[in-house]
Amino acid sequence: MIGRRIPRIDGPIKATGEAKYTTDIYLPDMLVAKMLRSPLPHAKILNIDISKAKKIPGVKAIITGRDAWDIRHGFIETPRYPADQYCLANDRVRYIGEEIACVAAVDEDTAYEAIDAIKVTYEELPAVFDIFEAIKPDAPDIHEFRLPDLIEPFKNVGGRCANSFGDMEAAFKKAYLIREDRFETQLRTHCYLEPQATVAYYDVNGKLNVWTSSMGVFRKRMHLSKILHMPLSKIRIHKSWVGGAFGGKIDLFSHEFCTSLLSIKTGKPVKYVAERDEIFSYFRHGQPMVIDLKTLVAKDGTILGQIVRCYNNCGAYRGSGVVCIFLCWGFIILPYRIPTLDYIGYSIYTNNPVRAPQKGHGAPQVRFAVESQLDIIAEELGIDPIEIRLKNARQKGDILPNGDTIKNAGLIECIEEIEKKTDFRKKYSKNLKEVKQYKNNTRFRRGIGIGVSSYFTGTLIYPHNSAAIIKFNDDGTVQCYTGALDIGQGAETILAQIIAEELSIDIKDIEIIAGDTDNTPVDIGSWISGLTYVTGNAVKKASEDARKQLLSSAAIYLNVHMDSLDMRDRIIFVKDNPERSITFSKVLENHIRDHKGDPIIGKGFFRGLKDAEHGPSLKNAKGAWSDSYAFDAQVAEVEVDMHTGKIKVIKATTAHDCGFPINPLLVEGQIDGQVSMAAGQALSEEIIMEKGITLNPSFLEYKLPIATEMVENDYIDIITEEYKKGHHFHTKEVGEGYVSGILAAIANAVYNATGVRAKRLPIRIINNLS
Amino acid sequence: MQLPHFKYHAPRSINTLNALIEKMKGQAIIMAGGTELIPRMKMRLIQPENLISILKIKELEHIKIKKDKKIEIGATVRIDNLVNFFKENRPFNAIFQAANMVGSQQIRNMATIGGNILQNTRCKYYNRTLQWQNIMPPCHKRGGNICYAVKNSKRCFAVYQGDMAAPLIVLNGKGEFLFDKNFIQKPLEDIFTGNGAMPFNVGKGVLIKFILPQPEDGLISTYKKYRIRDGMDFPIAGVAVAIKIKNKKIDDIKICLIGVSSAPVVIKDIKDFISEKKLTDKLIHEISEIVYNQAHPVENTDGDINKRRYMIKQMTFEAIKELIDGYDK
Amino acid sequence: MINKGVKKRLITLNINDRDYHVIIDDRDTLLYILRDKLMLTGTKDACGVGECGACTVLVDGKAVLSCLMLAIDGQGKKITTVEGLAKDGKLTDLQKAFIQYGAIQCGYCTSGMLMSVVGLFNTNPNPTKNDIKKAIEGNICRCTGYNKIIDAIEAVKDKRLKDKNDR
């Protein structure tokens, strides 16, 4: 069952339309919620008058910042980075679209009518949108917050992460070449197809029932409990299927709080579904970044040191911006050996909407910069892109500057194999020569490029662990209780495969009961790239526990030692004499009879970084970060139409070391999606904003790839980790590591084809058309 | 997002349609496929009291080749039907090309030729929801007196992006309109005002059908479309070219642009320019240059304006070259 | 806005070979009636303005966007939604192929995608890869990059053509 291309178990319900997503939840007497948003990028709220709106027939409740107590929330909440955002604006708004009031009414028309009837008086304040404007001494203050240890004369710094090691002076002395470039990545967004949606129902027993399109139910419950002043036991997040997230649904959102509070106030179910243009305009996007990158290399291409400054435009509140600048540090020290580093990342407040993680969370930005620059350096040194990467690649046993050990690394193999498979060196040098000598007069030019990246496999952030329970039905079929939430990646399928493997049963005999805070044990959630590793191991241990109990019980009835037993298809038998056997069903029946009613229940739990007290420091990047790191090398082959500037990715090849691929079909699916997202980022996607207003808030205008832009994919598995029954195992990250190498590879391939070096995304070839 | 309330009418004949329009006294809007109108209604850019669907009028949904070889295309013929009808039709290839690149397959199944031609002009500052509209004071097209696309402009520059207009115009198509029980034919290029805020000058006229003249010998045509993605998107520059070849020379040429102005741009002075000149790449480049000089896109839709303008030149060259190179084959 | 004197109508819609009698407002879209009135929530609402394809249904065999179609215009037509594909509890070859080839991830585009493909096969039993891409150009999928969706469609095409030739 492990390592096989099993079709996903939620396939049938999704193929028939039976799967219920949050948007599909309809409860009797349900109210519709709509949001009043700030039309100004920065203003004091002087007064909110809801008196007229309240009187409209059909309006059941209206809430404003006054109803929201004085509690703020944040993506992270630490003493250094206290929560900085209200669920509904209190006395001030800081971006266009910030939530001011929420209405619950009997229907959409009435809710909108009430929204229009609310009168807000503002005192407009000066606003700033650009990071380099925002840090100037005369910039408006977006928050009163000041970082105590900020040494730079910058304003509006929401977070700073600094880390340095090695002897930079010596590196400068040794350096043969010093290269300095500025790279910029655009504002992009997730484009999950299911809109942000929440249904909240505060029932007569005082329980708040919530269905919400999210990435992890326990994290949402924690946030809601805090912000609503309610005990955790009084909030239940129900499972609903999730129509895509890509990082954009992990934070607490205003509408989750509002629907909950409106339901408490009205005693009726309340539903909020965001309109698509609201999502594009006001919800959280990825993080646009400016990266100043200075790299010192020896003559042979060995990296001696790097000086890096990352400027992240985090929007009006901290969001995940401060995590992003920590992660950027991480994606600098991986996947190459960096002996000397001077890193500072800044997360800067501006009057833009808030930012969230998006697939890669810092990696696409950093890899685009580093991989592009590495190709520039290689060319200047007369080394090919493969060689310079092999020279610097991290290897098994490397110890990262924070003390983490690279337990296994297939990076060298990834680079070598991908070179062979794509005939990289030959194609690369041929194209380069043609471009240089201007011999290539053909309209369509081909180029090939490589990018390398590495990604962590889970870290510590609430909830830090996963647990699982395996219970049996009388007939020996299995139910697994897990808090995991399948957001499309196939979590439930993977977990079922692990159980099937451990208990040697058919996947059809397993039911996964998942993602419900009342009915399942805690789970880290489908984010920080840790689910398969952390939850997978929890489920594995629960299965092992159940297996051990079954075997030890069966050993009694078969009168043999349990080591001589094996199991298959719900039957336990003696290895040497398979005729001597007993069914799960009979073992369970006997066990209950002989153990005072004890049914066999397997329990398992797991936590990454088991020896670490907490996750790494966001201030100085010290402390353990992750148990293991996945590596990949990706190659893009592009064709550029020199008459129109149209760039087409002809083929993408991904060589990946994701540990043990439990389901190669799902691994490929993850790669396909990431390559597509990267191609979009490289070539066409960008949220265009003008003074805080989004000018392309639709699927038509935000140019995410459609079917005609499909990229052909090829995959190379580099398996560095075996799956061992009875041992906990390092499946590694596969969900977001492959969006970065290929992004850089596309940029490098465009250079290879045309000689145009992209320093800003998306790549544009305008001035160089023939 | 729900639509605003309106009263729905669906006449089954042109006569009843006429009667209805009279009764409504201008308080009605006519809808065919709805693919352009419904999003604008959802955005509350229009909130008609009455909506008249013309989809049930059978006589509007046919394509006919008349005895005089003229082609009549009813106003509610779906774009997808045009794709099939004009497939492998050399003189009218531009119609096939354009129809085949309209929107998505679902849009082509729903949208009609009449709706495509009479689609409203678009602008990134106009096609926005009510919530967005509260943020910015109304522009010319929304009844105000500001233009966000062209700062300080006294008029609206919203861009016309109806793919089908370009080929129909270069093929000398006419539209037949119903004005108070009278049927009036107008050359298609004459129905546009050039004003982004009020793009059509057909008044209360109801579009009934299009008439394409019998193709003359040697007529060939094509359409090129520039958009960011190879599907779904509106044209941010489009070129239709019709050429009549006689004795290996261009006897007649008509070029029309869309996606670069508030109305289709019919290229002026082109026929005189080429008269009796030898067909060389140089000549085609010169034609493309003339076309380029008459294209003036503004920053109101996808893409970069310089690129859009450049693409007009590029596509014109390609279109003519392709037509001429392909002629003898 | 409520009880603003909007006149209701009783209409009959034939959906998945079953007649539904529904009370509607003139302004109701087919999508709204399917989801909010008939609880046929397989058809998804993801943008509301015809730009994502998630709400695709078949009307008289052709793929259309139910968010841009008035319910009242559905009268007298044969409407098919994703719920109408499987017959007698058995999935169609297309649904099975989507599952087998990994064409489904989060699943939110799946219903619309399937309906677009059924519409394609209704008019073209032997589509090229480009025909396939064109048929689903209006169906946005952010999870799969479209690769496995196109694999699945091609597999169904090949199988159907083979079965036809074998007959």
Proportion in helices of chain A: 25-40%
Strand order of the largest sheet of chain B: 4-5-8-6-7
Query: What's the pLDDT, averaged over the residues of chain B?
Result: 95
Overall tally of domains of chain A: 3
Name of the CATH architecture of the largest domain in chain B: 2-Layer Sandwich
| CATH class category label of the largest domain in chain A | Alpha Beta
Structure description:
The complex is a heterotrimer of chains A (770), B (329) and C (167). With 770 residues, chain A is of the alpha+beta class. Chain A has three domains: 175 residues, Aldehyde Oxidoreductase, domain 3; 311 residues, Aldehyde Oxidoreductase, domain 4; 143 residues, Aldehyde Oxidoreductase, domain 4 (2-Layer Sandwich). Helices cover 28% and strands 25% of the residues of chain A. Chain A has 18 helices and 30 strands. In chain A, the strands form eight sheets. In chain A, strands 3-7-1-14-11-12-13 form a seven-stranded mixed β-sheet, with helices on both faces. In chain A, helix 9 links the parallel strand 16 and strand 17. In chain A, helix 14 packs parallel to helix 15. The N and C termini of chain A lie far apart (55 Å). The mean pLDDT of chain A is 96. Chain B is of the alpha+beta class and 329 residues long. Chain B has two domains: 56 residues, Uridine Diphospho-n-acetylenolpyruvylglucosamine Reductase, domain 2 (2-Layer Sandwich), CATH 3.30.43; 224 residues, CO dehydrogenase flavoprotein, C-terminal domain (Enolase-like, domain 1), CATH 3.30.390. In chain B, 29% of the residues lie in helices and 20% in strands. Chain B has eleven helices and twelve strands. In chain B, strand 2, helix 2 and strand 3 form a beta-alpha-beta unit. In chain B, helix 3 packs antiparallel against helix 4 and helix 10 runs antiparallel to helix 11. Chain C is an alpha+beta fold and 167 residues long. Chain C is 34% helix and 15% strand. A five-stranded mixed β-sheet of chain C has the order 2-1-5-3-4, with helices on both faces. In chain C, helix 2 crosses helix 5. Chain C is globular. The model of chain C has no long low-confidence stretch (mean pLDDT 96). Chains in contact: A-B, A-C, B-C. The interface between A and C is large, with 67 and 58 residues.
